[in-house]
Amino acid sequence: MDFLKCIYCKSFPLQLIPLNTVNQEIDTSGFEKPICKFYCAYLNEKIEKNRDYPCFDCLKIEIIEAVMYCKNCGRWYPVRNSIIQILKDSKRDRKKDLEFLNKWRDKLPDEITLKGKPFNLSGEGKSC
C-alpha cells in the first residue's frame, strides 16, 4: 500500500476495501513496526511517528478479493485471487468488472457501485 497510487490522477493513497479475507499464520519475528512507512491501510491513515501500529494483525490477513479506490478521481481497481489489477481503462474487461461489482454490491459504497470509474452499475459507467 505504501507504493500504490492511481494510474490516472496519481493520487496516493488508494483506499483498501477488503471483501473476502482469510486469516493465515505468519511468523512475525524479525519484523519491526511499523512495517509500512507512509500509509496504514489496516487503519486507513497516514503513518505517524511514535505510534504503535497493529502490523502483526494486518500481516495475518490474506486478502482474496477487495477493491482499491481512488477518492480523488473515483476510479476503482479490483483485487481478484489476491492479485491487485491496476490497469488502464482500455485494458479492463467491462463484463468481468460489472460481474465483480454485482457480486459485491452489498459490501461496496455507492461511490463505487453507482458512480465508480471506469464502470459502474448505474448503466452510465463507460470506458474512458
> How many helices in DSSP terms?
3
According to DSSP, the number of beta strands is: 6
Please give the radius of gyration in angstroms. Answer: 16 Å
Query: Can you list the strand order of the major beta sheet?
Result: 1-4-5-6
Show unreliable segments.
none
Specify the biggest β-sheet.
Answer: 4 strands, antiparallel
What is the average per-residue confidence, as pLDDT, rounded to a whole number? Answer: 93
Question: What is the overall silhouette?
Answer: globular
Number of domains: 1
Helix/strand/pairing class, anyone?
A: alpha+beta
Helix content: 10-25%
Query: Approximately what portion of the residues adopt beta-strand conformation?
Result: 15-25%
The multimeric state of the shown protein is single chain
Cα(first) to Cα(last) distance is 25 Å
Explain how this protein is built.
With 128 residues, the chain is α+β, with helices and mostly antiparallel strands. It has one domain (15-113). The protein contains three helices and six strands; from the N terminus they run E-E-E-H-E-E-E-H-H. A hairpin with a 4-residue loop joins strand 2 and strand 3 (45-46). The mean pLDDT is 93.
What brief labels describe this structure?
alpha+beta; two-stranded antiparallel sheet; 128 residues; four-stranded antiparallel sheet; 16% helix; 3 helices
Overview in brief:
The protein is α+β, with helices and mostly antiparallel strands.
Produce the secondary structure layout.
Elements: E1 15-23, E2 39-40, E3 45-46, H1 55-59, E4 61-69, E5 76-80, E6 83-84, H2 94-104, H3 110-113
Antiparallel strand pairs: 1-4, 2-3, 4-5, 5-6
